[in-house]
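Q: Sequence in, structure out?
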Amino acid sequence: MAKVETKSKGAAKKKGSNDIVSVSETILNKLKDLNLEPGLQSDIVWCLGSYHHDHNPVGLYEKAEHALHLFKAEHAKKTKGITIKIITDIEKVLKAK
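A: Exactly. Output:
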C-alpha cells in the first residue's frame, strides 16, 4: 500500500514540475515576442537549463512570480498580446507549488 501512495505523490510532483516548465517556456516566448525584459528572458533560459540538469524548479517559480507582476502591469496598460489566460496560467502554477 505504501508504494502506491509514494508513487502517486511522485507522479503529482513530476506533473507540477512539468507545468512550471511549460509555463516558463510560454512566459519566455511571450517576452521574446513582445521584446520585453531581456534580463528576465536570459534568467528564464538559465533556469530552464538548470532545471533540466538538476530538476530543482525553485528558480523557475521565482522567475514566474516576477513575470506575473510584469504581465499584470502590462495587461493594465493594455499591451497587445498579454492575455488574462497567460496570467491565470501562471497564477495556477504558482498556487500549486
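The first helix runs from residue 2 to 34.
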